[in-house]
Amino acid sequence: MKSKVAVIPCDSYDQGKVSEAIEKGIALLGGWECFARKEEKLLLKPNLLNRAEANKAVTTHPSVFEAAARGLRKSGYEQISYGDSPGHPGSVEKTAEVCGVKTIADSLDIPLADFSHGKTVEYTRNRITRRYELCQGVLDSDAIINLCKMKTHQLERITGAVKNLFGCVYGLNKGAAHAKYPDAESFAQMLVDLNLLLKARLHIMDAVVAMEGNGPASGNPVKMGLILISSDPVALDATFCRLVDLDPKLVPTVYYGEVFGLGHWKEEEIEILGIDSLDDYKKLDFDVSRERSSHGKWAVFGKLKALTRKPVIVNSRCIRCGACVAACPVEEKAVFFPEKGKGSTEGKPVPVYDYRKCIRCYCCQEMCPEKAIVVKRKLL
Ligand code: SF4
Ligand code: SF4
Q1: What stretch(es) of the chain map to CATH 3.30.70.20?
Q2: Is the pLDDT assigned to residue 301 strictly greater than 60?
Q3: 305-376: what CATH class?
Q4: Model pTM greater than 0.90?
Q5: Could you tell me if the CB of 318 is within 6 A of ligand 1?
Q6: What is the CATH number of domain 3-281?
Q7: Other beta carbons less than 10 A from residue 118's beta carbon
Q8: In a mutational test of the pocket of ligand 2, which residue from 358, 375, 376, 378 has the highest number of ligand atoms less than 8 Å from its CB?
Q9: pLDDT for 127-141, tens place per residue?
């Protein structure tokens, strides 16, 4: 059976328009009740990557959160909570507040789930990863509704439905996962396994304004004017790829999503609902990596450190906050503040890299609040 993806035009974050688009997409897919029973405890999982205001396109826009929450409430769902485990250290609540989601949640009486505690979960049926430290709020829920954001990602090319569930992993364990699965291939396999464990019921992608370029936190907002909805996260991400002229097979989470049986990415296995043709909504100049690469044993060439792209600090933008150093999952830190005098400017020095230790996870680039880290080819 084909996977269905609803692609609904929505040209602004006007609350009425977003609600109308989401309701239309849900209706095309059969209604909310096709995905969850009224008595179940639902967890809304927006992308709350860091403390960024809604117009920065880093996080799921609050109007998308509000539309989904109101739609569920209107359909009789009482037990709804929300949460995410942001990359940014500190309170989830504060992050949700800055992103604009907390105000909406409070007004709808939707509590923040417990993302401040974690618990180890074993899942022996997975192919690669059989143990996860999950947030308690995830374990307390019966069903996840994934509210993801359309963005670029330096490790996996894109972050959409599959990658957004990484925020269900508790706190610092996300950094440890980067250290354990240091390349795009193995990290994608871990993410697909996580999706197979969590079995989110529905994925709603905020693509009204997406992020291109140096994503997922330092790129540029770009208008796509769409909301995408599907119960198949692989089909949803593959549709994202086609809309931005990226071969879905190049995206490891999409490729392994099919290999591991999570969903479908091939065009003939996906039914697009809501529009006549994706061609009318494509953004061919969307800034995303379209470099060719391989999977499986041939991917070994892409893992050679000398050939992979490196994070580089633009000194003039750096405010010496140390977020990159804190985010680095390598035990002895591959990015660090040098001793005064070595590569330092006046006052506190700009961090420097030891590329021999760097595993190219790009967590530093993801967490830099000043867009001071770019990822590019650079000889060692
Ligand atoms: S996170 Fe960015 S701004 Fe902060 S020290 Fe690192 S490079 Fe500089
Ligand atoms: S320096 Fe940056 S890219 Fe390299 S391992 Fe640390 S966080 Fe990852």
Answers
A1: 305-376
A2: no
A3: alpha beta
A4: yes
A5: yes
A6: 3.40.50.11440
A7: 22
A8: 358
A9: 888 899 999 999 999
